[in-house]
Model the fold of this input.
Amino acid sequence: MVFMVQERVVKTDIGEVVLGTGSTSPRGSGPNRNAAFYTYYRCPNGEIQYRPSDQAHRAMYREEGCESLTQYGSFEWNWISCKNPFNQLFLQGGAKEFPLFQVIEYGWHKNPPKIYNELGSLITVVFPQLEGQDIPDFSCPYCTHGVYTQEGYDNHLKGAHKDELDNERLAEAISKGLSAQQRPRVGKAVVE
Done:
């Protein structure tokens, strides 16, 4: 399987590097061969992301306005990190870096991640940005799927529960029609 991506030339301290060539290897090949190591970045909208940490990618992300959070180091993408990519950031006290909207989108305000610390103890990540916040609950009325923003809630209902919403709209229309028929008519009666 080859993943095709648009190629892009990025100028770095060591010259020009072509990014975006396809690869069949999970570690990549060619100019992306070091892309299996990731670093945390703060994007222009404040969101924290993990992205490849090689020099060419770092240059591309700087062009996009992303700030590298090098104080939290890099991590190798493997079977552990793919399930918990923010573990290293959390272990080093980086939970404070996340903007409130991202904490809510990930549902961490209700179910904060649990990670193993250096001593092997399971600890719950604490987000100081949640202190004193009153966050509305957008729980789905049809299933147990957790959605935590108004936009996510609306998208979830439209996508996952379209039939239920259609049935509710139909029931409302029928109810309105019936109640309109049962109202007493006001006016003068015409007698011939």
About this structure: The longest strand covers residues 37-42.
